[in-house]
Design a protein that fits this description.
Structural class: mainly alpha
Number of strands: 4
Shape: elongated
Length: 1452
């Protein structure tokens, strides 16, 4: 029956009455049509929407409210009916608020309908989307959702609302919808007394959206968290997804309730994983390095539990970022986890707390937990400490407050942790620091990280505190300690340390290039520390250095060689050429405009790229110290040796033909060559067997294109772009094959053979920098040019014209009779090129005139010398120029006249290179040299007598320079004649200059600086002359002993300069083996750094010489004993013999190993079977030294746990030093007598410690014993390694560190009063930057095997014989003396040659004219030995020089 209709809404007593009167319910079987029902519901919805809650007549709503709650309407299947019904019901709840006109069951059905309708919000294109929006807005505004709390068993409705809303909340959802949904959920949480566990899971699961997919928690017990829509975006960008924002807002709005629920959730997860009985330990427990993992005692967490726990911790970190207050009850549980027995739990809790500390103020919010986290720095498990240091570095990166500052000292300490995992983690974390953090936090002087005083730090162990008492500057100390890791004993830590430092320098490059002095002071030292590892001479370290050098410091593809636009244009041009080939050969000789412009643009791009690359190289070189420069310059020097070997290896690969040899090929010879050179190359790489196998696989692959590409890499004719493209193609071709492991061994070899540093493309930019001094790189460019000309002059071929133009610009004629700055380096570069490629030098008249001008007026005199060299090697009419120069220099020569030094330098070079042209002028030349050397024009004054003994080159006065040039003139005269009485007289002059302490005046009034320079020059000349067999024969043993004492000269610059040159010549096999004995006199070197360098050099040479026959380093021990016997300080008293035992120990530390100790002992015994040939009446001294040597060897072998066996062979000693016994009776008498005092035997143990370190400067102090830093790492006594041989390592001593420390105290350098000779004097310790050993851990110390045995190809005047085509005959190879040898050994052991020479080694001093470094003043003691002392030789007299005979011109 229809209701009575109402014409319009009525208002009764100002109250609004509902006018709707149509039925909405129906009986079964008489359903209202859907269209009619929707129309009625629409009308009702509109009318209800217009009614005001305060004015409505609720009685008029009763019928409609009842009809709307009818089950057949609430359960209707049509979406439109449900949508409009939900709107009407929402308005009914609004109009009846706060009391709903429905029963609890009706409300439950109504809210179920609401849930169904609200799901429609997920589709914005739905037809009833606006009705869903209205429903959502009504529930949020009216807060009708609170009625859910009155419904029994409403958990399902609550869960459905949370699930639906979070599924709907996607990025495309409007902010208004997101806001209303969030508001509804917040109302629901606030009204409900408790939330279902599933609801808490849903809220927390939203924070997983902030975790990258790879970190999303794995499936576990509470897997509902992972049941979110996969289409939801993860928080991998700066904009969080809406669902994350909803959860965040809910937690912040309902902090108290959510805190309880979240705490309950974490308690369940943590209690299931954490053992029931937490261990009892203090927060600041220290690490026990030797302690084992404690017994867990309780429940051990399973893998699933740890997985779930890891998920919970991930959520905790995200909750801390979003809403820290909800974790107020969770954080104490994390603190308990950090005290758990299981290290995995501690590590997880440490990571979580560390991540939390990145944001907010964790230290203030949870001070106890923060303190517990700080204590994990000393956790006993390395994985926990590693995780701690990773998080600490991140905190330091993102924060600048006190939380980060108090971590800086702990990070520095962890870089020296005992465990490699911790050190590796520290290096890896520091690599992620940004440039601003490095420069403003770690390196800035006034940074809080450097002003922070760690004296009150409770987390820092007493053992970890700095020994120098400085509890500040921890930011800088982090970088300095990081620099020590490049010498770490673990290879992966070394690699990470190198890469970290190199990346820091790479970030600072722009500022360094712009001349930022502050940045240079902070980070400019990094490349030097990295390149210092070159001297370790370890294959693994060398490979690491190759990668870091060519991939970070000077990247191979820096800047990108080809841009895409050029590559595309090349492809189009190639395609066009192919299509049009043969169509119009004769048409159009010229190129189109686009092609011309393209070629110009490309050429400009190439030139700019070369300049940018060269600029980076020059900036790198400019910041290097002297030692690092030598290492860097040795890289291209090494390239030459590797290229030669690689060429032979490639030829063998081609002959091998992949294992299928062509007819006529000698299979045995081919296989032998391939085997030999692949073995040589593999010995320079880690894991030689594996490297050798890879090289054989490369040969078997037989890719002829790769062979040609490798040849492009090392060809001097290849441009840089060609080299880089070849490298890329080689890697691509091999990488695409099935033999990709070949690249592991081939890549470092490619870096070593390629023309990457010295390339023909680099010459023009370097010349430009040297000419313009752009960015202050002019002097560095000159230095690089000089080194380039010395090691690889072939790269100048394409740019020699630019060098000649530069010479003309720098000539004295073009600069007002003054040589331009850098002219000497340019001349030296040209001289090196002229020697190798004389026909390629330009013959321009202006160039020759400029060279003549340099020869006559060049300043400094070295300019004249190099100019003469260029003329005499390359000029077409060099005889004419030589004659003219002789006349202009000799005629009317007057000491002190203008340019007289240039004339003397010109003469000294002419007499060497043009001996045939000075026949008529020879007496005048000798007279000039005599007058200059013997006359003292600057008498010694009181101030000079008490002043320094050495002055720098730029402070050297003209008189001293003239004397040095005069001495060179005489020596070069000798070198040009080689024979005759003149040679003997010059030899006498040189020896007497050395013996007379450099004095050339009879009145002995020469200044101290002159004497030091002259005796050094005389010694260096003797070393150069000794390279000639005829000259070496003139140096008798007595003269040799005087020369050897130069290694103990009281002036540090003199002895260092002498020893450096000696090592250089010995490394290049230019001197007889007897000269090796001089190096061992450095046992008493007062500068510890230099003594350690000598030890490492000897080890490197021992390893190199061990590959040659003759037991060279073992047999020279007899020569060393003879040298010691005739040392001016030798005496047979107990104290003297104890001192000389240190020489022997110095030799043993550097040479002896378990394999050769028996031979060395045999040599010591053998000496007692001979008489002293030089002084037969004092042969007893020889027996004293023999017994002393035997005693020292025994103690040393005992300390190293070595066994000395009887040597079955027989070795004859050098007949020039040792004479046979006169008869059997004398032999038996000597053999039966003991000469060594018993007191000496008892004193030997006082300086031979269990590790075999001597007091002769070869020890390394522990860090706890050091106060002054040093830049040279310690040398650990170590058995010498030979390439291709493996030796049994020495057993470690089991003695305590306490006894070792006592031994070191006895091992210190003797005080000044106990020095026995001027050379063995004390010195003020040089304070400079040092790599300290790891704090309290000797295990970090690495032996430094300096690579100082490379072939030296320097073109400097004092480093090679400049006479064309005058080379001595090579010495024959001696037979190797072995225990099984039955033949008679040679009397004299000569150094043989064996190609190819070790290219891994580095000659420490290739530069003859390098500036002598300042050295501390040496205090001396001039006491002489009681025996064997010789009277000092008188000064060189004028009569001796005047007696020099006239030699015919051209005599050889």
């Amino acid at each position: 029956m229809a209701r009575p209709s109402r014409s319009a809404p009525e208002e009764t007593d100002d109250r609004m009455v509902l006018q709707f009167n149509e039925p909405l319910s129906w009986k079964a079987g008489k359903a209202i049509p859907v269209a009619t029902l929707i129309r009625r519901l629409t009308a009702l919805s509109k009318e209800l929407e217009a009614l005001d809650q305060e004015k409505v007549d609720r009685d008029s709503l009763a019928i409609a409210a009842k009809d709307l709650a009818a089950p057949n309407l609430l359960g209707h299947k049509d979406d439109g009916v449900k949508a409009y019904a939900s709107n009407c019901l929402a308005d009914m709840l609004r109009l009846h608020a706060p009391d709903a006109p429905y029963t609890a069951q009706q409300l439950k059905d109504i809210f179920n309908l609401f849930v169904v309708c609200l799901k429609g919000l997920d589709d914005t294109e739905a037809p009833y989307y606006q009705q869903y929006i209205y429903l959502l807005d009504s529930l949020s505004t009216v807060k009708s959702v609170v009625l859910v709390s009155d419904i029994p068993d409403s958990e399902q409705i609550t869960l459905a609302l949370f699930t639906s809303f979070f599924d709907i909340c996607k990025p495309r959802v409007s902010k208004n919808v997101e806001y209303h949904m969030t508001d509804i959920l917040v109302q629901l949480i606030e009204e409900c007394n408790s939330l279902p566990t599933e609801v808490v899971d849903i809220i927390i699961a939203q924070f997983l959206r902030a975790v990258p997919p790879t970190v999303t928690a794995p499936p576990g017990k509470k897997s509902i968290r992972e049941q979110h829509d996969d289409t939801q975006t993860k928080l991998i960008s700066a904009v969080p997804p809406p669902a994350y924002n909803m959860a965040k807002t809910i937690c912040n709005a309902c902090t108290d309730k959510m805190a309880r629920h979240i705490c309950q959730y974490f308690s369940e997860v943590i209690l299931e994983a954490v053992p029931s009985k937490p261990r009892k330990r203090n927060v600041s427990d220290s690490v026990d390095p030797d302690g084992d993992e404690e017994d867990m005692g309780g429940h051990e967490p399973t893998f699933e539990e740890l997985h779930e726990l890891n998920k919970a911790h991930t959520l905790a970190k995200e909750l801390w970022k979003a809403c820290p207050p909800v974790l107020q009850n969770v954080i104490p549980q994390l603190e308990q986890e950090m005290l758990a027995e299981n290290h995995e739990l501690r590590e997880l809790a440490t990571e979580t707390v560390g991540d939390m500390a990145l944001t907010g103020n964790f230290a203030t919010s949870a001070p106890a937990t923060w303190k517990a986290w700080m204590g994990r720095v000393n956790d006993k498990h390395p994985s926990v400490r590693a995780k701690w240091v990773e998080l600490a570095v991140q905190i330091l990166k993102v924060r600048s407050d006190h939380m980060a500052i108090q971590l800086v000292d702990l990070i520095a300490v962890k870089l020296n942790d005992l465990d490699e995992k911790v050190r590796f983690a520290a290096c890896r974390s520091l690599k992620e620091l940004d440039y601003e953090s490095i420069t403003t936090k770690l390196t800035a002087d006034h940074s809080p990280f450097n002003t922070y005083d760690s004296s009150g730090s409770g987390a820092l162990n007493r053992k970890s505190r700095p020994n120098d008492g400085d509890t500040k500057n921890w930011g800088k100390r982090i970088l300095l300690t990081l620099a020590e890791r490049v010498r770490d004993k673990k290879i992966h830590v070394r690699l990470e340390g190198m890469r970290c430092l190199a990346k820091m320098w790479d970030m600072a490059y722009k500022d360094l290039a712009n001349g930022n002095e502050m940045i240079f002071e902070q980070l400019g030292w990094i490349p030097s520390k990295i390149l210092d590892t070159f001297y370790i001479n370890d294959p693994e370290v060398n490979v690491l250095l190759d990668h870091v050098l060519h991939e970070i410091l000077i990247p191979v593809n820096y800047p990108p060689i080809e841009k895409e636009r050029f590559a595309d244009r090349d492809d189009r041009q190639a395609n066009g050429t192919a299509k049009g080939k043969g169509k119009s050969k004769g048409k159009g000789k010229g190129k189109d405009k686009d092609t011309v412009n393209y070629e110009k643009e490309r050429e400009k791009e190439v030139l700019d790229g070369d300049k940018v690359r060269v600029q980076r190289l020059l900036v790198l070189v400019k910041g290097l110290d002297t030692k690092a420069k030598r290492a860097l310059f040795a890289v291209p020097l090494r390239q030459i040796s590797y290229a030669k070997v690689m060429e032979v290896f490639l030829k063998a690969c081609e002959d091998n033909n992949g294992g299928v040899l062509e007819e006529g090929m000698d299979e045995a010879a081919v296989n032998t060559t391939l085997e030999k050179f692949s073995a040589w190359l593999s010995q320079k790489l880690p894991e030689p067997p594996r490297a050798k196998e890879n090289l054989h696989r490369f040969a078997k692959m037989h890719d002829r294109r790769c062979y040609q590409l490798i040849r492009y890499c090392f060809s001097p004719e290849s441009e840089y772009r060609t080299v880089v493209r070849a490298l890329k193609e080689i890697k691509k071709r091999i990488g695409d094959s099935t033999m990709t492991t070949i690249l592991d061994s081939l890549t470092p070899l490619l870096y070593r053979v390629s023309q990457l540093i010295y390339n023909k493309s680099h010459v023009a930019p370097i010349v430009e920098f040297s000419r313009t001094d752009e960015m202050g790189l002019g002097s560095t460019a000159h230095e690089v040019l000089k080194e380039m000309s010395a090691s690889n002059p072939a790269v100048f071929k394409a740019n020699v014209k630019a060098l000649s133009d530069l010479l003309q610009e720098q000539s004295p004629d073009a600069n007002g009779n003054t040589s331009a700055p850098g002219a000497v380096d340019t001349l030296k570069a040209c001289a090196g090129f002229a020697k190798s490629y004389p026909k390629d030098m330009p013959q321009e008249r202006k160039l020759i005139e400029s060279l003549v001008s340099f020869a006559l007026t060049g300043k400094p005199p070295a300019a004249a010398k190099h100019a003469v060299t260029i003329i005499m090697y390359s000029a077409n009419r060099k005889e004419m120029y030589a004659t003219d120069l002789f006349k202009r220099c000799v005629n009317d020569f007057t000491y002190g006249e203008e340019n007289f030094l240039a004339k003397m330098a010109c003469l000294s070079q002419l007499v060497l290179l043009a001996p045939e042209q000075y026949e008529d002028e020879e007496p005048k030349v000798i007279q000039i040299a005599k007058d200059v050397i013997t006359n003292v024009r600057t008498p010694l004054g009181d101030e000079e007598e008490n002043g320094p003994e050495w002055c720098d080159d730029d402070e050297l006065d003209e008189e001293c320079q003239a004397k040095l040039l005069g001495l060179r003139m005489l020596v070069n005269l000798w070198r040009s004649h080689l024979e005759g009485e003149f040679s003997t007289m010059v030899m006498t002059v040189l020896i007497r200059i050395i013996s007379s302490d450099g004095e050339v005046s009879v009145d002995k009034k020469s200044p101290k600086t002159h004497r030091a320079r002259l005796r050094l020059a005389a010694a260096l000349h003797l070393l150069k002359l000794a390279q000639q067999k005829s000259c070496d024969d003139l140096i008798q043993p007595a003269e040799f002993h005087r020369l050897a004492c130069m290694a103990q000269d009281p002036c540090a610059q003199v002895r260092h300069g002498f020893v450096d040159k000696l090592k250089k010549y010995l490394a290049s096999n230019k001197l007889p083996i007897r000269f090796y004995t001089i190096v061992f006199l450095m046992a008493f070197e007062p500068v510890e750094e230099y003594s350690m360098n000598a030890t490492t050099w000897i080890r490197a040479r021992t390893a190199a010489l061990s590959q040659r026959p003759g037991n060279i380093m073992e047999n020279i021990f007899a020569r060393l004993m003879s040298l010691l016997v005739h040392h001016p300080d030798f005496a047979n008293q107990v104290k003297d013999l104890s001192d000389f035992a240190k020489y022997i120990l110095f030799y043993l530390v550097a040479v002896a190993n378990e394999e050769n100790i028996s031979l060395i002992y045999y040599v010591a015994q053998r000496v007692k079977q001979y008489r002293d040939q030089l002084s037969p009446q004092n042969s007893e001294n020889l027996y004293y030294i023999s017994e002393l040597a035997q005693a020292v060897i025994k103690h040393y072998a005992e300390s190293r746990k070595w066994t000395i066996q009887t040597w079955p062979g027989k070795i004859n000693l050098p007949s020039s030093l040792f004479a046979p016994m006169r008869n059997t009776h004398e032999s038996q008498e000597v053999a039966g007598k003991t000469y060594l005092p018993a007191e000496v035997e008892s004193n030997l143990k006082s300086f031979i410690n269990p590790k075999g370190r001597s007091a002769a400067g070869t020890t390394r102090k522990r860090k706890n014993d050091e106060k002054a830093p040093s830049s040279i790492p310690a040398v650990r006594p170590k058995k010498a390694k030979s390439e291709g041989k493996s030796e049994t390592p020495a057993k470690k001593s089991s003695k305590s560190s306490k006894s070792s420390k006592k031994a070191k105290e006895r091992f210190e350098t003797p005080p000044p009063g106990e020095r026995r000779r001027s050379g063995r004097a004390t010195a003020q310790k040089v304070a400079n930057y040092r790599e300290d050993a790891a704090s309290g851990d000797e295990g970090y110390d690495d032996s430094d095997d300096e690579m100082l045995d490379a072939e030296d190809s320097s073109s400097e005047s004092e480093s090679e014989d400049e006479r064309p085509k005058r080379t001595p005959k090579a010495a024959s190879k001696p037979k190797k003396v072995t225990p099984k040898s039955k033949g008679k050994a040679e009397k004299e052991l000569n150094v043989g040659t064996e190609p190819p020479k070790s290219a891994e080694a580095v000659d420490a001093d290739r530069s003859e004219e390098k500036d002598q470094e300042k050295s501390p003043v040496v205090t001396t003691r001039t006491t002489r030995a009681k025996r064997g002392q010789k009277a000092p030789s008188p000064a060189v007299s004028s009569s001796e020089l005047s007696d020099l005979p006239d030699l015919p011109s051209g005599t050889e």
